Amino acid sequence: MLTIYAVSDYTGEAAARLVRSALLQFEGRPAVVATRGGVRTEEQVLEVVRDAAARDSVILHTIVEPVLRRTMVNECRTYGVDAIDLLGPLLDRVVAHVRTSTGEEGVALTGADPDSARNIEAVEFTFRHDDGERADELTQADVVLVGVSRTMKTPTSLYLAYRGWATGNVPLVPDVPLHPAVERLPREKVVCLSMSHRRLLELRLARSKQLAIPQQEYASPKVVQRELSWAQDLAAELGWHVVDVTGKSIEEVAREIEALIGGTG
Predict the structure, then answer these.
(1) 3-class DSSP state for residue 59?
(2) What are the distances in angstroms from CA 68 to CA 14, 44, 75, 85, 138?
(3) Which one of 94, 99, 201, 256 is at 20 to 30 Å from 207 when CA atoms are compared?
(4) Measured between alpha carbons, how far is 50 from 76 in angstroms, rounded to an integer?
């Protein structure tokens, strides 16, 4: 079962409430929420990341301190853990407006106010259309992410949703037919996430150990190369955008996707 870590340098309750609200859209309990408050040192950040790396997990955090936010990004990259900075975009937006109001140069960021109804709707849509669910409804999405396993589809989808984009994501699996509704989507709204062979192999090996997945079926060099090549060929055939996520934070990937989709809308 997926574990969602709600991490904060304060209580962690804000992130936990957001997660629980989103999970209400599902029947049963598709995930458990682990609240980690009072995370105020780099050592505590590392402890949370190591704990998350030992299971199927996503980290959502509302850390304010810039050094700790950077540490979270770096450690999650190192351990192959998906993490979403819930507070960072809001802080960036406030800084931009403060600069503008004081006569300094400000930059308008993509995405609506995080508290707006549009963002709530986008988050709800994204949770309902994760991992190929309700593929026949993806025509309603602003953007659809596709890619082989462990290419950051779900965390990127959630980050985009937080910024107001109704996002669906669909796993690409060789020898498993693509849902016809996905093939019919306008090519300009589909983004295939790719990754270097070496990095994807590292992430697959870590996950195969955590979840006891047979390495020869999921994390061998031959399997990883085959899946990446097949996905790239499929993207070229269907005219999808391709974004290489290697070495990039979720924020960086999301902004690249926003630039692609915003430029075609």
Answers:
(1) strand
(2) 18, 10, 10, 11, 36
(3) 256
(4) 9
